[in-house]
Design goal:
Length: 269
C-alpha cells in the first residue's frame, strides 16, 4: 500500500514520539507538540539541567538567559512531561535582551500578538508571568497579577504606567494555585480593551477594562523580555514569580480560540 506525503509525515512524528518515550527522551519540536504555524519564540524550558540559558525551539534563535537559577531549581513538568524551572519569587527568571521582534508596534499603530505560559504558581498574588518591561521608563507589555490575584494583560504607551490599555480577569487565580495551568493572552492590535482576550486552560476568562490615561500606541523601548519577572530592574515595583514554569510562547499574531485550545491542552497536571 502506498502512503501519501501527509500520511508519511504524520507517521514519522508518531514514530518519533514512540521512540522518544521508549528511551525517556523529551521531544521539543513544534511540529510534533503543536500542529500550528511556527511561533515567534517558544521556550519549552525542558533542558532538565544547566544554569545559563534555555533554548528557543521555534527555530528563530531567541535563546533566553537564566538569571540566578540553580541546578536544584529543575523539577518535573506537567503530567511528568519533561521538566520545569521552580522559580523562587525573589530574583529568579529567564530573560532576552531587547529586540524589535518583540515590540508590537510600527510606531503609529499597534500590531497583533499573543503570549502564554504553562505554570504552577505557588502564589497567584503579585506575580509575573511574562513581560517586556525593565523599569518604569522601559515598558511595552506585560502579563502579570496584582495583590488581588487577578490576571492582567497590559500594553503601555509612552513608556508610562499612566497611559495604558488592558484587561483584567473578573476572578482571582487563587483557585489555580499549586497545579499546572495554561495562561494565555491574545491581542488584535486594535488599541482597545475589547481587542484583548485572556484564556485560562484554553477557555476565555471574563474580564473588565484596565485602562488609564491616554493610550496612543504601544511603546518601543529598550526593555528586555522576561519570563517570570515584571519591572525586574526597579527597586520598588518589581515582581518575580514563585512557582514552576514549564513553557513560554510569544507570537507576532493573534491566536484563534482553536489554536489556544491546542496550546493549552499540553499544560495539565
Amino acid at each position: 500500500m502506498l502512503l501519501d506525503g501527509g500520511v508519511m509525515k504524520h507517521l514519522a512524528f508518531v514514530l518519533a514520539l514512540v521512540a522518544g518515550a521508549a528511551f525517556g527522551a523529551n521531544i521539543d519540536a513544534w511540529t510534533v507538540d503543536y500542529p500550528l504555524s511556527q511561533p515567534l519564540a517558544w521556550w519549552p524550558i525542558n533542558e532538565g539541567s544547566g544554569t545559563s540559558s534555555t533554548a528557543d525551539r521555534s527555530g528563530h534563535g531567541h535563546t533566553a538567559t537564566l538569571n540566578n537559577i540553580e541546578e536544584g531549581d529543575w523539577v518535573a513538568g506537567p503530567s511528568g512531561i519533561g521538566y520545569a524551572l521552580n522559580l523562587d519569587g525573589a530574583n529568579e527568571s529567564a530573560s532576552l535582551a531587547d529586540t524589535d521582534a518583540f515590540s508590537f508596534t510600527n510606531g503609529s499603530n499597534d500590531l497583533p500578538f499573543s503570549v502564554g505560559v504553562c505554570a504552577s504558581l505557588t502564589t497567584a498574588a503579585n506575580t509575573a508571568l511574562i513581560s517586556k518591561t525593565s523599569t518604569l521608563s522601559q515598558l511595552e507589555w506585560s502579563l502579570y497579577t496584582t495583590s488581588g490575584s487577578t490576571l492582567h494583560m497590559i500594553m503601555y504607551s509612552g513608556n508610562s504606567t499612566a497611559d495604558r490599555v488592558g484587561a483584567e480577569t473578573s476572578s482571582a487565580l487563587t483557585a489555580y494555585e499549586g497545579a499546572y495551568h495554561s495562561y494565555i493572552a491574545t491581542y488584535d492590535g486594535s488599541e482597545s480593551y475589547t481587542g484583548i482576550t485572556i484564556y485560562i486552560d484554553g477557555s476565555a476568562a471574563a474580564t473588565v477594562p484596565d485602562n488609564h490615561g491616554t493610550y496612543v500606541t504601544m511603546s518601543n523601548s529598550t526593555a528586555a523580555l522576561y519570563i517570570g519577572a515584571f519591572l525586574a530592574n526597579e527597586s520598588s515595583y518589581k515582581k518575580f514569580a514563585q512557582g514552576k514554569f514549564s513553557e513560554a510562547i510569544v507570537d507576532n499574531r493573534g491566536w484563534t480560540a482553536d489554536e489556544v485550545s491546542v496550546i493549552a491542552a499540553r499544560c495539565r497536571d
